[in-house]
Each structure stands twice: as C-alpha cells, then as structure tokens.
Amino acid sequence: MLREMLQGKLHQAAVTDCQLEYPGSLTVDIDLIERAGMLVNQRIQLLNCNNGSRLETYLIAGERGKRDIIVNGAAARHAYKGDRVIIVAYAIYSEDELKTHRPKVLALNARNEVIATH
To answer: Which one of the listed residues 25, 53, 80, 94 is annotated catalytic?
Structure first.
C-alpha cells in the first residue's frame, strides 16, 4: 500500500509580497525549499494563519538567501504581505519507506529565518 504523508513543512513563514499579475504560484527562497526537502514545481498546500485560507499550488524557486515568500497569481487573492503562512509538501511513500521516514519541519521567524527544526 502507498500512503500520502507529510514530507516537509515551513511553519509560520511570513509573506514578503503578493503579485496578482505574476504567472505562477508560490515563490520561496531556494535555500528554504532545499532545507525542507521540497522540490521546485512540487505541489504544496499554502495555509494562511491570518485568514484561514487553504489552497493548493506549486513551488517556484526564489533567489537564494533573500528569504522571500511571494504569493503569485490567483493565490495572491488569499494573502497579504506580512501574513503568517504554513507551507506543506506531501509525498507518497511505501509501507517500508514509512518505517524510517521523518518529515523535515522548519519553524521560521518573522524574517523567514530558521529558528528550529523538527
């Protein structure tokens, strides 16, 4: 049996910009994507802690080291600059893989700096 499970999470990230006219989805600093074990173009959920909005979209690589979290396109209607969000990625695992699987969870501060890992 295969199961879809949490792969990685960026917890309490701060939205740095919203670009309604940008053709894309969620731009995230590539450093954060890599540290959380996520991949560019991977399907993710964006959970907005400020307004309760939940949506599915995909990751776009942002500039390394800038700590940007930019909500683009139609998704920009669901967030404002400064909103705190949770970015969740899932992957499909076999029962054998689940025996050792541990999701990578990064807790971020308001400047999108990693303050804890779980």
So the answer is: 25
* pLDDT, tens only, 47-98: 999 999 999 999 999 999 999 999 999 999 999 999 999 999 999 999 999 9
Residue 80 annotated as catalytic: no
**In 3D, which of 115, 20, 19, 117 has the Cα closest to residue 68?**
19
In terms of Cβ atoms closer than 10 Å to its own Cβ (0-12, 13-18, 19+), residue 52 is exposed
> How is domain 2-109 classified at the CATH fold level?
Barwin-like endoglucanases (2.40.40)
Residue 58 is a catalytic residue = yes
Which of 22, 58, 90, 93 is catalytic? The answer is 58
- In the three-class reduction of DSSP (H, G, I as helix; E, B as strand; rest coil), residue 50 is classed as coil
Quick check: pTM over 0.70? Answer: yes
